[in-house]
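Researcher: Go.
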Amino acid sequence: MSSAQQRLSSIAGQLSAPGAAKQNILSKNPDDVVVTLAVRTPLTKARKGGLKDTNLDELLVSLLTSVRERSNLDPNLVEDVCVGNVLCPGSAYVARSAVLAAGFPVTAAASIANRFCSSGLLAVQNIANQIITGSIDVGIAVGAESMSTNADGGAPDMSEKIMSHPLASQNKQPMGQTSENVAGQFNLSREQLDRFAANSYQKAEHAQKAGWLNEEIVPVHTQIKDPKTGEVKNVVVDRDDGIRYGTTAESLGKIRSAFPQWKPSATTGGNASQITDGAAGLILMKRSRAQELGQPILAKFCGATVAGLEPRIMGIGPSIAIPKILGKFGLSKDDIDIFEINEAFASMGTYCVQKLGLDEAKVNPRGGAIAIGHPLGCTGARQAVTALSELRRQNKRVAVTSMCVGTGMGMAGIWVSEH
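Model: Structure:
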């Protein structure tokens, strides 16, 4: 055997060795896209919580100001800010204006990413792809939503060509109906859904009481109006306010069905994600650039992928997107330490955990959207902030973040903690 053949044989042996794929993503290379800061605002109840009177522009200015101040990064180095947002009219105006008002220079560009519930992760992917191709060196990915001040009007009226198409017409179905479709098609009981939801609340309660969430959160200085007196007060919002302490499957079982018009009517206000306000942001750059600038390297963003499926059962998206992203990196579910799966509804969460055969202790260890809320455009970025903080706490390395996406999609990303 020639020396060249011996080298090729050695490389092939290394790649086929147990754990080789995981070792590959754990390796450190100058061109890796890394995270140097990852923070979020508190998540608060829409129309009731601490951010109910905070418009998207104010929320973005607050978050981006915190990102700028906490990073110790020269703001002149930031070339682009991509904001994941779903609901805000004129969001492109708002994003660019907020970037400037938060103290970034006129040279910092801005854009909007909207793929419904995965918008925050899409923003990360958009910034990372620009870094990989050399379009920019430093960027910020943000997910943000004010569901108090911007309502979700659902699908618009669409043409006869769409409404007569067997798949395209499914996008007129409300999200609640898709949850019931999942529960019905996959024989998920109300009791299973309530158990899943109670577990989310209990994990979130434990995380909040233990102080684990403090590392994730940057406070928001804002104003709130008393709905009865109209009095406006200056407040500091510094904690999630949707976590209901003492929640059990039994207490959830007493809540009436939210969608009695659709069978099996297993979805309730207690086992579905909360309507919520909040924002999250991550600074991204190449490893070589972070080292040159003396920036702390918290994690590596390995990549993300998206998958499509029938809109009527959009909730099962993570069960397709997660195997797809694992396959692209040659990983197995056992290589992953934490799965952050967005709990749009307990029906989809229950199905995805069962279908993928996941260890429930690894799934949303700090609770998920049922307990803390789902600000649509924020969630994809918020999950990354939470996952990286939890990896550090557990002294573990690899996380997958994933979510179902309205109109029938799933998205998933892989992250490696280095802190």
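Model: Residues 6-16 have pLDDT under 50 and may be disordered.
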